[in-house]
Every structure is written in C-alpha cells, then in structure tokens.
Amino acid sequence: MVYSNDALQNEHIVVTGATGGIGYETALLVAQLGAFVTVTGRNEEKLQLLGEELRKHTENYFVKRTDITVEEERQDLVCTAEEKLGPITGLVNAAGIAGNYTVEEVTAEQLRNYMELNYVSLVMLSKLVYRSMKANKKGAIVNVSSLSGLRGTYANTAYSASKFAVIGFTQSFALEAIEYGVRVNAVAPGIVDTEMGRAVIERKAAQHDRTYLEQKQHTEDNYPTKKLITPQEVARSIVYLLTDATESIIGETLKISSGSLMR
User: Where would I find the Ketoreductase domain in this sequence (predicted)?
Assistant: First the structure.
C-alpha cells in the first residue's frame, strides 16, 4: 500500500463503470482508504458482487444501477448518493466502451454511441457533481481517457476521437473548476488486462489474422515492460489524483503506458 489507510477518510467518491476492471479496482481501493463510496454501472449482477466485496472494507457504500447516458438516471444517481452518503467530493469517470473500426467500417450510429457514453455522459455527470463541489469549494474529478486519446492508431477512429475529447474537456474544465478548489485531471492507460482490454486484443487478432495468444504476445512485446498494464496499477494512479497530495496537479493527463509513449 503506497497510501496511508486514511488518505481518503470521510471523502465521498462516486465511481462510474464500476463493473469494469478499472472501476471495480478503484472502488475497492478508495473504500480501503476510508472513503464513502458510491458505485454504479449497468450490470446488476456484477454490481451486487462488488457490493459484497465493499462490505468487507466499509459500511459506507451505496450501489446503484445506472445508465449514465440517460439524464434522468444521472440526476437520480447524484441526488440519491448525496442523500445516502453526503456531499460528493470525488468523481471517477471510468465508464466507457472500446472497439476497433476503420473509417470504412464505422457507422454513424456507432460514432454516436462512442461519443455518448465515452464523452457526452462523462461531461454531463461531471456537471451535476460539480454543483455541490463548487458550493463546498472542494473536490477532485478524475476522467479515464486512454493512450488512444493522445495519438491515433489503426482502426480506432471512433474510440480514439472520444478519448481525445475527454482530454480536451479535462484541460478546459480544469481551468474553470480550480477557481473553486476543484481539481480535474485524467489518466490515460494503454491496453489493460481487463475483460474490455482482452476483447480489444481479440478484435486486433482477427484483423491481423493472428491467434489471441499471438496478438497478446505482440502487444506485450510493444511495451518496454513486456507485460500488460493491470487494473490495480490504473486504480492506484486514479487514487493518487484524488488525494490531497496532488493539490497543484491541474488539468493533467497521467500516462500509464509502460514506457510505450513518451512525450
């Protein structure tokens, strides 16, 4: 453990996409560090399993299934979470979808889906949470972007564009929010060893006529560390940005690239 056990004591952290690998590990870690935690996602079964794990670390948690692309559900999430656990002081926007489509393959509907979940809903949920943060002059928001939000890659137009948008939002919103004591930053991991990350590897394998294991090895070989990034590593980076140790880190994007992208 690289943090004190009370690094987030009595903070109220909301984690979206908590049924995915990064969100799941982040929720567990903030609970271990003393935070009140609200978790949300669309998979009811996985949410209940996460709730059982959270119960081992804290009594101060709230689980709510939410489709964050729906305005009414976003509003209900924020209102109910604050009724249950008090003002929200931290938000981790970890919900998202990934995929690999060339320009010739991608449809307008797919583009809209990527932007709606990966970008629009992230902005609109941040807007809702920001109200109480601004009023209390305290808060931290961490957006999960991607290395694909820093540079383009083959057959990644829709996903990459949505993640570039997240970084642009992070930088611009950070300048507005810091006036009221609210820090906004992002993390940008490469391919993470999660269900979503493994699905990306499978699609890339099909595109390049490789087996899954061959594509996984190819991916790992492109990292100087020669291994995939773990969701726990990403969670620790997110939590770092939530803590008071980062008071002067504003509008930054923390790359988690295993040395594959340096600039």
Answer: 11-194
